[in-house]
Amino acid sequence: MVDELNQKISQLLDDDLNYQESLSLLKKMRTQPGLQQQLHRYEAISHVLKSDTFVPVDTDFAQRISRSLQTEPVYLATRRKTFKKSYASISALAASVVAVAVLVSQGINQSSQPHMMPLAQSQSVTMAGNAELQDPQPPLDHPSEKELTRNRFIKYLQAHNSSRYIDGAVNLQPYARTVQYQQE
Amino acid sequence: MGQSIFSLMRGPFSISRNNRVLKVLSFVLSLTAASAFAAEIDAKQSPEHSLLKMQQAMKHLNYQGTVAFLRNGKLNVLKYSHASTNGTGQERLVSVNSPLRETIRDADKVSCFFPETSKVIVDHRPAARSFLIDLPEQLNGLEAYYQFTFSGEEQVAMLPTRILDISPKDQYRYARRIWIDIGQYLPLKVEVYDRSGNTIEQVVFTELEVKPSLPFIDVDSALLDKEVERIHNRQPMSFETAGFVLKQVPGGFRQQFFVQMTMQGSNRPVEHLLLSDGFSSVSVYLENKGANIELGARSTDSVNAFSRIIDDHVVTVMGEVPEETVRYIAEGVELRTDIQ
Asked: What's this model's pTM, rounded to 2 decimal places?
């Protein structure tokens, strides 16, 4: 019986044991420390045969790892405060009614304001309204023209808001590097 | 009949009656004091009060940490520090990923250091604005255009925060949500939402510590051996000298400064007016028509812009506001006819 179990441990290490037999063997090893030690010895022998080197590992190495994991502290973040159920349901209902009212009123406001017309329509109105006054606009499909237009937009952005310097949105100085200071 | 309060104090009956009066008076006084105390507590716990405390904390505390900026789908992680002494502040940002760069904001300028080219860009700015969030100097009157409510509490950067929702009351500005550190009142997270509710900007501290003091960077000394390019070197002027007037501006937007300048790499004069409602800012530019400007609407991340031609000039309005706002302002720009 012992030889048979030893044989199975050897097969387990060589990955020659099928799933059911592996499961059965591992269940037995869980309750029989002797089998665990045998597995440990066979592992060491196998390692030496394959690599000509031997790195001794404590027999309770795995147990110590397991214990460490079990005793690792758990961070319990503060739970988000919730209102009482009755208040929450009433508030949710009230918020829904208000939201619907706001959306409906906004929809009415938008439809009633002439400057809220669709973009394409508004653009055509603006351009047509100034058609007599303006020179024919140069086509923007020329690369240099596009580049000039983009550069002008970036310069406007720079002048508008200094936070443009911290994000890559306008690709300012893509090869910038940090500078070192002598600090006290 | 005809008894004075003093006559009531004579005799047992009078004393008893006086006691009742005193009891009623003390009860009324205690009620008044309690309601005043409750009102004070309510005021101290109000969103507006938290916003005020946050404004003061941002200005006067020394703090540093790591901040993630998410804009237009791009993430920038930077080391952030804010030093303050005697009411003067300095913000410093150092990117931790390529492209590496260092940006320092003082009261009147923003300095960007590019050591690869041994060049420094110094951008002189009439108004200082925090890299983290635009906040109004005066909070009075904001309630006419925004609604402030607390919507819960969460942990950010392992610190407890109270969530402040700032909802616009009209269609001309964006909604914001600020996670305010309960202990120090610093903004640990800020999100800006478009009108559909999508997040268009996010600033989050991943770690933060408040220090008794932090060193100021002596920018002028750092510039000594560098090639310095100074841009937007401008002095604020009266808007009365501008070549344009604004016929329509959404409520709450006020003039921050007006300057006349030349753009970098160009000799064309440009007029620049900055408006702000406290949280959102809008720039109005006016220059000659020869400038390369794409007409109509365009946008990049949270910034919308609208350009149109007026006679021989082109006006461009841009800002961290909905498209309706820049279009509305642009359509109200007219050339000034009463120039001295």
From this structure: 0.61
